[in-house]
Amino acid sequence: LEELYIPDEEKVDQNGRDIISLVPKPNGVSVDDLVDKSLELTGNSENTGGSVMARSNKWRPGGRITMQDTELGTVGVEGLKIQARRWFTTHTGFVDQNGYYQCDGTYKNPANYSFNFERYEFEIRGSISGVDGPKMEGNWNQHYQRNTKQNYHSNIFRAAFHYAYKNILNLRRPPQNGFWRTQLKIQANYFNDPDGTSNGNHNPARRFLGMGSAIHMYAPTRPSSGLYGTTIHEMAHASHWNMDKNNYNNGDKIVVESWARGVQWALTRMVYSNYNLTSQYIRGSYTGVVQDLIDPAKLVQNGLYQADGNLEYINASYNDQVANYNVRQVEDALNGNRTWIGWRNKMFNSYNNPTKNNINATFTFWETR
């Protein structure tokens, strides 16, 4: 096949100029003029009137993609890869934190906008895979209200993009895409967990050949911070598995779930400053040990915790006297350990923290039902 060259659809250089505008025009006739005439003669011209030799102004695709957040209001769906396509040429832009994007090229006729809830490192699957926009000129803007599939997918996407690409306090990333490695798949189910027991789950066995989704998400009508936090929690499991597969697969539940709960607390509050997990900590399984190791010393007496699945006040004679570890230190101590005691001992032995002598009390409190 011959190469097809359509200067109607040009990239821009680093200064934002159309590359085609730099091409000489012999005898005053540009390549654009020749293409316009060719399109007219073949019945493909979209010129609505006037001389085809007087070509229309070029335009650069852009716009804003946002969603309604229950706590933050209107927020950008940061990280979305937006594509504008016309014939055989596609220009691409990426949504920033405020929702704005601009593609890397120009057109002089309408183009089709679209995006998928996917980046190189991960893909959000579910009842929708993306959004196909209209064929148009000018900016394409979208805003997704609460209790829509687009809002649900957008919420999960924001959290996944955070863990895969943004600042995660020096933690290890979840499994990354590449040669002999499969892209992380997240199944966004637009319904509640059929068993009624989970907001999400992670099973590395479902990664087989990249066909299944290691992470499944449920309960789409929860507050935005809850959806964000659950996504972080399940991706923390994926990262833990990727770091130490054998000890993750054979690890004690209290170790595996306490770590994911801790990362959930640490990363989600980077976006939702008032995010609080107190009522979601469960002594003996989904504990708050990671938070206690990191945050300032505090009294944790008569706290609202879950015990054996029931939310209740526990008269706990426990004074959290451990502080100022960082989350990467906790992760490094987790690496190579599958037991609660092994994790505790490595925390104690690995770092010269002035509060280390209180670590035993912290671990003892959280393992006691």
Features:
single chain; 369 residues; alpha+beta; 2 domains; five-stranded mixed β-sheet; four-stranded mixed β-sheet; 28% helix; 22% strand; elongated
Protein topology:
Layout (H helix, E strand, L loop, with lengths): L9 E2 L19 H11 L20 E8 L3 E4 L4 E6 L2 E6 L5 E3 L2 E2 L4 E6 L1 E2 L2 E5 L3 E7 L3 E5 L4 H17 L18 E5 L11 E3 L12 E3 L6 H20 L1 H5 L3 H16 L20 H6 L3 E2 L3 E5 L2 E5 L4 E2 L6 H8 L5 H11 L8 H9 L2
Parallel strand pairs: 2-12, 10-13, 13-15
Antiparallel strand pairs: 1-7, 2-3, 2-6, 4-5, 4-8, 8-11, 9-10, 14-15, 16-19, 17-18
Helix pairs in contact: 2-3, 3-5, 7-8, 8-9
Describe the protein's architecture and organization:
With 369 residues, the chain is of the alpha+beta class. The protein folds into two domains: 185 residues, no CATH class; 120 residues, no CATH class. The chain is built from nine helices and 19 strands. The strands form six sheets. The chain has a five-stranded mixed sheet, with helices on one face. β9 and β10 form a beta hairpin. The longest helix is centred in the middle third of the chain and has 20 residues. It is elongated, with a radius of gyration of 26 Å. About 2% of the residues have low confidence.
